[in-house]
């Protein structure tokens, strides 16, 4: 169950990062509220998963999901560049996440 909660926490991190970008520095109410709600939910789920998962594993996977997820959302919805070096970096992050999961 902790892994499911951690995955949900990571996905919520992607949502709050994207909505923070859309909030334009917290000057737009809707995206600002989405940011705050999903941020709180993400932190709550992360903290619950840390009851049974090691700190380093949980935090690394949470930030990894958020980083790669934000990278993909940026490319798909914000038309950010998808250079070979950026894609390689994302692949390395995912590889690290997989290794961290396998080691736990």
UniProtKB/TrEMBL annotation:
Q: Where are the transmembrane segments?
A: 33-50, 57-78, 84-102
Q: Which UniProt keywords apply?
A: Cell membrane, Membrane, Transmembrane, Transmembrane helix, Transport
Keyword check for Transport, yes or no.
yes
Q: Tell me, which GO biological process terms does this entry list? A: xenobiotic detoxification by transmembrane export across the plasma membrane
GO CC annotation:
plasma membrane
Q: Which family does it belong to?
A: Belongs to the drug/metabolite transporter (DMT) superfamily. Small multidrug resistance (SMR) (TC 2.A.7.1) family. Gdx/SugE subfamily.
| Protein name, as recorded | Guanidinium exporter
Q: Which organism is it from?
A: Pseudothauera nasutitermitis
